Amino acid sequence: MVESGRKKIQIKSVLSHYDIILAILVLFICSFGLVMIYSASSYRAEYYYKDSTLYFRRQGLFLLGGAAVMILISLIDYKAVFKKIKIFKFRIPLLIFFWLICIGLHWWTFFNGYSAGGSARWIQLGGGINFQPSELSKVCFVLFGTVIARKNRKLMNTGNILKDFWGYLRSMFWFVPILVPVALQNLSSAIILAGMVTVMFFCISMQKKYFLIVLALLVVGAYAMVNIKEYRSERMGHFWNDENMDSGDQILQGMYAIASGGLMGKGLGNSVQKLGNIPEVHTDMIFVIICEELGIIGGIAVIGLFLLLLWRIFKIAINAPDFDGSLIAIGIFAQIALQVMMNVAVVTNSMPATGVPLPFVSYGGSSLLILMAEMGVVLGVSKRTYEPIDDIETPEKEK
């Protein structure tokens, strides 16, 4: 009876202390994204595939699967990923196995990946479905970054700026095997990955001044990567000299879309720029369609939803039950914040063009599944934060 009672209490605890606000925000943003994907992609899907609902249906299936993944992962103890598993006769941490898989996927993609837009970023799975390993690595960087931060905390808190900076460099060394192939083929993802880990290390460091040096190094490194690829240099040139943009440039057309939408927009489904003027408008450029159809008010409302989502994740991070839970939530917070800022900055020509999807809104199955899985982890951290502590009294004590 006692065991049965405890199981009932645990189930009730999961349901009554679930972070419903975060879950509703995620599902609402995803549902809004689904509507905008249909609006943005229906013309293209009808023109090329004779099926105006093609992208809508695909994303809808990924959303249903992602919601199930989010709920399932939220019920699993997030500390399970730090445990060891047995492979043949060896016992290695599950996270190390995950790390090695990500390294292998990225280098395989670098040499054999599916190329589009001048860089190889995808692995073709068949059936028109492509998988981008950098999305999986975002999860890996959050989890592995948590372990490195826990083990190297003292190296970054010596009281000496130079020693702290050296501790940061030693910690970042672990991420180089993935950052190198990613930066060579997908600079935007490399910036997000490096930025996520840097934010996590910033949060555990007592001394903050040396991060000015870190920021300078990241900027110099990004600038060097820009000059490696010709198409990146062209994009940088367009950014500094936007008056010389070709009339067909997607960023220029995107700015036309935002301007034509005005304050209140043209109305849902009434975008003109989606009719072939902007390629792949349902992916990285979907924010311009939001602004064209729903106006500046609609764009601000979307940004407001993301701010609410980030505030909720931040609140979970500062109330997390332990160091690992807090750092995991901070890493996911940094990832979403960086993606939203970069996407909005690109489509408004506030930074050079680069391929960064708008989280939960842009079309992309692998991206959505990974994001939903991460939200499941955050929900799991929140659930443990509010779970009541079990009574550990023994019969001997009661006597």
Write the SSE topology.
Elements: H1 2-16, H2 20-49, H3 54-74, E1 84-87, E2 90-93, H4 94-112, E3 114-116, E4 119-126, E5 129-131, H5 133-151, H6 161-172, H7 176-185, H8 187-204, H9 211-226, H10 230-240, H11 250-261, H12 286-318, H13 323-347, H14 365-386, H15 395-398
Antiparallel strand pairs: 1-2, 3-4, 4-5
Describe this structure in words.
This protein has 399 residues and is mainly alpha-helical. It is 67% helix and 6% strand. α2 (20-49) runs antiparallel to α12 and α4 (94-112) runs antiparallel to α5. It has helices at residues 2-16, 20-49, 54-74, 94-112, 133-151, 161-172, 176-185, 187-204, 211-226, 230-240, 250-261, 286-318, 323-347, 365-386, 395-398; strands spanning 84-87, 90-93, 114-116, 119-126, 129-131. Strands 3-4-5 form a 3-stranded antiparallel β-sheet. Strands 1-2 form a two-stranded antiparallel sheet. The protein has 15 helices and 5 strands. It has 2 domains: 19-75 and 251-399, no CATH class; 78-228, no CATH class. A hairpin with a 2-residue loop joins β3 (114-116) and β4 (119-126).
